[in-house]
Amino acid sequence: MKATEVIRRPLITEKTTLQREDGLTIVLEVAMRATKIEIKQAVEHLLGSKVASVRTAINHGKVKRQGRFFGQRPDWKKAYVRLRAGEKVPEFLEGA
């Protein structure tokens, strides 16, 4: 899997912003088939920062309803990427 296919987008929420400010943790939405090793390689290749650890979590899609019809949003995967000590968070993610 290509590095650009592994990382979908950074997650910008109140919780992830606090994690990014407190330490060296970046939270990203990644492809469902991506492994921890692929995520680590993609972050090191695309962002140019050395990775200390990767934790992943699968979020299951909510069941939504419109009138009498039910549907389900797709499942998606997020990765908590912890950078090594001394590494900087990329500049374009700092203000986000």
Would you kindly provide a written description of the structure presented here, covering whatever features stand out?
With 96 residues, the protein is of the alpha+beta class. 30% of the residues lie in helices and 36% in strands. It contains four helices and six strands. Strands 1-2-6-3 form a four-stranded antiparallel sheet. The chain has a two-stranded antiparallel sheet with strand order 4-5. The longest helix is centred in the middle third of the chain and has 12 residues, at 36-47. It starts with a helix and ends with a helix. 17% of the residues are buried.
Task: Kindly list the characteristics that best describe this protein.
alpha+beta; two-stranded antiparallel ribbon; 4-stranded antiparallel β-sheet; 96 residues
In short:
It is built from four helices and six strands, in the order αβαβαββββα.
List unreliable stretches of 5+ residues: none
Mean pLDDT, to the nearest integer, reads: 89
Output the helix-strand order: HEHEHEEEEH
Helix content: 25-40%
Decide which structural class fits the backbone. Answer: alpha+beta
Major sheet size, sense and barrel closure:
4 strands, antiparallel
- Order of neighbouring strands in the sheet with most strands: 1-2-6-3
